[in-house]
Write a structure and sequence with these properties.
alpha+beta; 4-stranded antiparallel sheet; 8% strand; binds zinc ion
Length: 462
């Protein structure tokens, strides 16, 4: 960038000099010996800093430095390899480069007569004289049409675009919201252009504030925040059937939010939970360190992802409880968070079975879920009073195995034995829900959540 600034001030060298002076200043002992020397160095540093600040304040510096940074951390998420992101073109002024690569062809196109053109643009259907431009420059979209001809039917490709579409696609990164790990999201909430902008601006705000706080900026959290915001404005807001496009690991995935997922999210976003948070927000920072090959496995992202696929959360709940029972390191969640998932899952299961219809639908009842958790707490405390605390963990582990293998009979055996041992009466919920495996299991997981408990969770004592 420096070469575009037309100044003799050698900023790279000046910064190096400053670093040297700062290193000298850091050698504490010497400066204690010679205070005058310290003052001299500070004065020299100050004047150098002022020069450097002035340098970055010039209009030329403001024009080139931020643009260069953006091209490497934001723009290159959407496309690469051409124009100013072509590694061979790094000596060209990148504004001129963009102009000649993307803008000039549009000007030329608009000036030409297209009445006799043979081809049409595969995106906008405008007529074209030649097959020149393709999606190939976009990351994860298309391929080099001239080199990989065998990818197309009969070796003749028709996925060409006009220069106007090429220019439009060059600004994809302006619409997407990215974090610092090259993950991005775009809500195609296109009922109106205002709605589209609002939803995506809200995500950008949320992501920016997460980045500023140095926390894990997840695109899914930004998504949930946009959803919550729209919901706050109108109770009737729904994201059902809206398209969400996520970008991760250089791949795009396109999803239509199912009506059921929208319902479950709405329920969780409106549900007041612990310490002023909602059920949804309480899950934001839940995760597991060093899990499934990931440095940090975000439970929140997993939940949203599974809801979008209408997949129920039972397996995730099982895993979260198992890791707790086996006291695995790196679990960043409480049994309270597990209960959030169980409640959301119950909602999902109920919505799905409503959709399927039929007679005798058994629903998972939220109050009963909380009661079953309470029963689990009761058993744990019962064991503790008989100085048999480890028994609760063992029971939890065996119950989880019974639930995982859909063995209701075995779960009931374990339950009856526990209640017999403590001389208590078995909760009737388990007796009455045995006919529906799915429903039964939800109560089972809620019971195990109570059984696991946590020493420092004040909620447990209720
Ligand atoms: Zn076009």
């Amino acid at each position: 960038v420096i070469k575009f600034l037309n100044t003799d001030f050698d900023v790279a060298n000046e910064v190096k000099e400053c670093n040297k002076l700062i290193r000298t200043l850091k050698k504490k002992n010497e400066l204690v010996k010679s205070r005058n020397e310290a003052v001299r160095i500070l004065k020299e540093l100050t004047s150098k800093f002022i020069q450097i600040i002035d340098y970055f304040e010039t209009p030329q510096a403001k024009k080139y430095f931020p643009a260069k940074t953006l091209s490497y951390i934001v723009i290159n998420n959407a496309w690469n390899g051409v124009s100013f992101l072509n590694p061979q073109a790094k000596n060209l002024d990148f504004y001129d480069d963009f102009q000649s690569y993307f803008v000039e062809p549009v000007k030329k196109y608009l000036a030409e007569d297209h009445s006799k053109d043979k081809y049409i643009c595969s995106t906008c259907q405008r007529p074209m004289k030649k097959l020149e431009y393709s999606y190939g420059f976009l990351n994860g979209m298309g391929y080099d049409l001239n080199r990989k001809t065998s990818n197309a039917w009969n070796f003749s490709n028709d996925l060409y675009i006009c220069p106007i579409c090429q220019l439009m696609y060059s600004v994809v990164s302006a619409g997407f919201t990215y974090n610092m790990s090259s993950q991005g999201i775009f809500i195609n909430d296109n009922s109106s252009i205002i709605q589209l902008k609002e939803s995506n601006n809200q995500m950008l705000e949320s992501m920016t504030s997460d980045l500023a706080k140095n926390s894990h900026a997840s695109p899914y959290r930004a998504f949930a925040s946009a959803f919550k915001n729209e919901l706050a404005k109108s109770e009737k807001y729904t994201m059902a059937n809206v398209q969400v496009i996520t970008y991760d690991d250089s791949k795009y995935s396109f999803k239509i939010i199912p009506a059921i997922a929208s319902e479950v999210l709405k329920y969780a976003a409106n549900k007041n939970w612990k310490n002023g948070s909602t059920m949804l927000t309480s899950l934001y920072s839940t995760g597991i360190q060093g899990f499934r090959g990931e440095n940090y496995y975000s439970i929140f992202s997993a939940v949203i992802n599974q809801l979008m696929n209408n997949t129920d959360l039972t397996n995730l709940i099982y895993t979260m409880e198992l890791l707790k029972v086996t006291k695995t390191q790196g679990c960043r969640y409480s049994t309270f968070n597990i209960m959030s998932l169980i409640c959301m899952n119950a909602r999902l299961i109920n919505e799905i079975s409503k959709l399927k219809g039929g007679s005798n639908i058994m629903e998972v009842n939220e109050d009963k879920l909380h009661k079953m958790r309470g029963c689990g707490v009761g058993i744990r405390e019962g064991y503790a009073s008989k100085a048999n605390e480890n028994k609760a963990q063992t029971l939890a582990y065996r119950m989880l195995e019974a639930l995982r293998s859909n063995n209701i009979e075995q779960f009931m055996d374990l339950l009856l034995n526990a209640y017999l041992y403590l001389d208590k009466i078995v909760p009737s919920v388990f007796i009455s829900s045995q006919t529906d495996q799915k429903v039964f299991k939800q109560y089972g997981y809620a019971f195990v959540a109570g059984l696991i408990g946590e020493e420092f969770d004040s909620e447990e004592s209720k």
